[in-house]
Write a structure and sequence with these properties.
The chain contains 11 helices and 13 strands. It is an alpha/beta fold. β4, α5 and β5 form a beta-alpha-beta unit. α7 packs across α10. The chain is globular. Bound molecules: pyridoxal-5'-phosphate.
C-alpha cells in the first residue's frame, strides 16, 4: 500500500471529483422555478408554498405540512404546539444540533437530556421512562444522521404517560421506518430543509403532522396571515378552525414570522420531484461504500440492518463506528487525520458536541431573572454534568464521519475505501510514530 501520506508518502486520492459530492443537484428546472418567483415579486406570498406543502405532505405520508423559514422555527413551533410552557420539561437526546431542543428554554421549560443507543446514535428508549415527570410534555426524537430512531418503542412509552412525541427529522427526509416515512410517526415533526441537509432548498423548514390541532397551533404560532383572518393570500386557510385560538386571529401567538420564502418553496417543488430517485442513488453509493468499509476490522458504518424495513433516506452526515482497540489504540482523531491526508478530506472524529455539557443548559439567564433559565420557572433541576451520558460522551472517541457520496461511481468509491484501508493497515506504524 505504500507509505502513509501523513508520513510523507503518496496520497491515495490525487484528484477529488466534485460531482461525487456536489449537492443539491440544481438544474434549469430549479432555476426557472426560482426566477419565476423573482420576476413576479412573489417571494412573500404563500400560494407556491401551499402547493409545496401539499406535495410534501403527500410524499411524507402525513395529512398536513406547514412550511417555515427554517428548521429551527419548525421545531420551535412544534414544541409550543405540544403545550410546552413555563415550568415544563422536554426530553431530548444530547447528541444533536442545538435546534432540536434549545427553544424549549424560550418557553421557560427545561431539557432533560437522555443518552443514545450505541448502535444507532438515536434516543435510547431505555433511557426515557425514568426521566418522565409530572411536567414532562414532549419527547423530542432525532432521526439522527438519517437513522430512524426506535420510534414505535418511544411513542409507546410517551403515550403511556400522555406525553407527545416530536420528531426532529432534519437529517432523515426520506428515511423509512418499518414501511412508514420518518417525520410521519410521532405526533408531529419538524425538519430543516437548509442548504446543507439532504433535502436542501436554502433556508427553509417543514412541519408535518396528522394531528389537525397541532397543525393549527403551528399556524397560530408563526403564520399570522393564515390564522383565519381574511387575506389575499390565504382563502383556503379561512377554513381553519383554530379552536380557542381564533380570537387571536391576525396575530402570531409566538410573536414570530415563520413564513417560507417562496424561492425556496419553488425550488422545493422541483427538488421533491427528483428526490426519491436521487436518494436512491445515494443509498446505492453509500451502501456500496459501507460494504467495503465494514470489511476493515476497526470500522462499522452506522446503517440499518438489512431486511429491517429501515432506510437512511439521503444519508445526511454519514457516521461510522471506530474501534481503536482493533487499530493498535490509534485515536479516532489521529485516524481521521491520516485518512484526510490521503486526500479524503471529509473525515473527522465525533458527531455533535454533547448539549448536556453546554453552559447554555446550565447557566444561561435568557430572561434576565438573575437565575439560570433552566430552573427559573420552578422546573426540576435536571442539569447533568460530565459522566452522566456515557454513550453520548464517548462519541468523540469512537465515531468518525465519512464521505457522503451523492453519485454511484464504483471506481472512485473504491479509491476512498483504499485510503481507509491503507490507514487502518498502517495503524500500528502510525501509533508508534506518534508515541515516538
Ligand atoms: C439543521 C438542524 C436543525 C435546524 O435547522 P435550520 O434549518 O438550520 O434552522 C435542527 N435540528 C437538527 C438535528 C439539525 O441538524
Amino acid at each position: 500500500m505504500g507509505k502513509l501520506a501523513i508520513l510523507g508518502g503518496e496520497k491515495t486520492i490525487s484528484e477529488v471529483k466534485d460531482e461525487l459530492f456536489h449537492w443539491p443537484i440544481v438544474t434549469d428546472e430549479d432555476i426557472v422555478a426560482v426566477t419565476n418567483v423573482l420576476k413576479k415579486g412573489n417571494m412573500s406570498g404563500t400560494d407556491i408554498t401551499k402547493e409545496f406543502e401539499k406535495e410534501y405532505a403527500a410524499w411524507n405520508g402525513t395529512e398536513y405540512a406547514l412550511g417555515t423559514c427554517n428548521g429551527t422555527a419548525a421545531i420551535t413551533a412544534a414544541i409550543w404546539a405540544c403545550g410546552v410552557g413555563a415550568g415544563d420539561e422536554v426530553i431530548c437526546q444530547s447528541l444533536t444540533y442545538w435546534a432540536s431542543c434549545a427553544s424549549a428554554l424560550t418557553f421557560g421549560a427545561t431539557v432533560n437530556f437522555a443518552d443514545v443507543d450505541p448502535e444507532t446514535l438515536c434516543l435510547d428508549p431505555n433511557d426515557i421512562e425514568h426521566r418522565i415527570g409530572p411536567r414532562t410534555k414532549a419527547i423530542i426524537v432525532v432521526n439522527y444522521a438519517g437513522m430512524p430512531a426506535d420510534l414505535d418503542a418511544i411513542v409507546k412509552i410517551a403515550h403511556r404517560h400522555g406525553v407527545k412525541v416530536i420528531e426532529d427529522n432534519s437529517h432523515a427526509q426520506g428515511s423509512m421506518y418499518k414501511g412508514r416515512m420518518c417525520g410521519s410517526i410521532g405526533d408531529i415533526a419538524g425538519a430543516s430543509l437548509m442548504a446543507g441537509k439532504a433535502f436542501a432548498i436554502g433556508e427553509a423548514g417543514m412541519i408535518t403532522t396528522n394531528n389537525r390541532d397541532l397543525f393549527e397551533r403551528c399556524v397560530a404560532f408563526g403564520h399570522y396571515e393564515r390564522t383565519g383572518a381574511p387575506s389575499r393570500f390565504n382563502p383556503v386557510d379561512q377554513q381553519i378552525t383554530m379552536g380557542d385560538l381564533l380570537p387571536f386571529k391576525g396575530m402570531p401567538m409566538g410573536a414570530v414570522k415563520h413564513r417560507m420564502n417562496q424561492t425556496c418553496a419553488a425550488m422545493g417543488k422541483v427538488q421533491l420531484k427528483h428526490y426519491p430517485e436521487r436518494i436512491a442513488e445515494i443509498d446505492k453509493a453509500m451502501n456500496y461504500f459501507a460494504d467495503q468499509l465494514d470489511k476493515i476490522p476497526c470500522l462499522k458504518v452506522i446503517r440499518p440492518v438489512k431486511e429491517s424495513g429501515l432506510t437512511k433516506g439521503g444519508w445526511y452526515f454519514p457516521l461510522c463506528h471506530y474501534d481503536k482497540t482493533k487499530a493498535y489504540g490509534l485515536a479516532a482523531e489521529k485516524f481521521a487525520e491520516a485518512v484526510n491526508a490521503e486526500g479524503v478530506m471529509a473525515c473527522g472524529n465525533g458527531a455533535n458536541s454533547p448539549l448536556h455539557l453546554h453552559n447554555y443548559f446550565h447557566s444561561a439567564d435568557i430572561f434576565n431573572m438573575g437565575k439560570p433559565t433552566v430552573i427559573a420557572f420552578g422546573q426540576r433541576d435536571v442539569r447533568q454534568g460530565a459522566g452522566t451520558l456515557p454513550v453520548t460522551e464517548s462519541a468523540a472517541g469512537n465515531i468518525i464521519h465519512i464521505p457522503w457520496f451523492k453519485r454511484f461511481d464504483r471506481d472512485s468509491i473504491d479509491k476512498y475505501v483504499d485510503a481507509f484501508r491503507k490507514v487502518a493497515g498502517a495503524a500500528k506504524e502510525l501509533q508508534c510514530h506518534r508515541v515516538g
